[in-house]
Amino acid sequence: MLSRSAQGIYWMGRYLERAQRLSRLLAVETEALVDRPVEEIYFGWRRIYTSMSLQPPGGSLELDEDDDFTLADSYTLADDLTFEPSNFGSVWSCFALGRENARQMRHCISAEMWTSLNLAYLRIQRLGMADIWAASPESFYASVVTDINTFSGVAAATMYRDDGWRFMQLGHLIERAQLSTALLLAQIDDGTTLDEDWTSLLRVCNALEAYNRRHGVEVHPERVLDLLVADPMLPNSLRRSLDAAVSELAELSSGPDADSTAAVRRLAGRLSAFVHSEWPDREDHEESLRQVSDYSRELHNLVSATYFDYDAVI
Fold first, then answer.
1. Which of 111, 277, 285, 309 is 20 to 30 A from 99, comparing alpha carbons?
2. Whether the predicted model's global pTM rises above the 0.90 cut
3. Residue 314: inside a domain
4. How far is CA 157 from the centre of its chain?
């Protein structure tokens, strides 16, 4: 596969995974605006911006003692994260970038995939913050998640299982690993011990029902972390994402440099083994997650150097 095609499909997967995760965060956050305490609302916004390494409009999300403007601020923050074109991490920007990569790589994806993604993009393009805020913003974000899930289902049903499929999956999985570690670190760094904050984290990760089945309704932060990081049965757990990345890299054709290809596979295996064997015995979960975050970024850099940005051999 041409490096340009591989890179385009890889980044399509990353951008759509990013748009989906942000939409889930915003769905939970805007739903909390109805009846949750102001402190909890501010925590939610801080968690989003910290996990994305972005500065909010105004530069601070510290809560004043007599803050009567939370709803107005929430509108501004939601607009920045949803429709702001200058914010390359916004839902609109990620969807637009994912769709543009798909447009350029239409020869590598199925016609049904392009139709599904393009229709979803056109629907979002016609909207603005005022349109979704007046009714039910959380419903809009849920519909974006549904659109991306639909695209993933169409891809699974129609895309040829060649290296293009594997690069798309690899983009999804590496993005998910980076986003998950960033989100968990933002949760830990804030120092929250409120059950509601940890419950909302489970909801963002589609893990609340799984947690309740395993541990009951009482929320313990340590158990939440163990579930989201190391559970082999949870679809979006860090362990499952890394295991899947190892599998995709094993099936992927070698890059031009055999040593670089081997290095990518070794690093992915090291990451997966860390979550399998070392996480349960670690007491400093924050440091462990920072280590996984560093390795995940290194894995992306190695994938790029091995398959996309290598020197041509003449």
1. 309
2. yes
3. no
4. 22
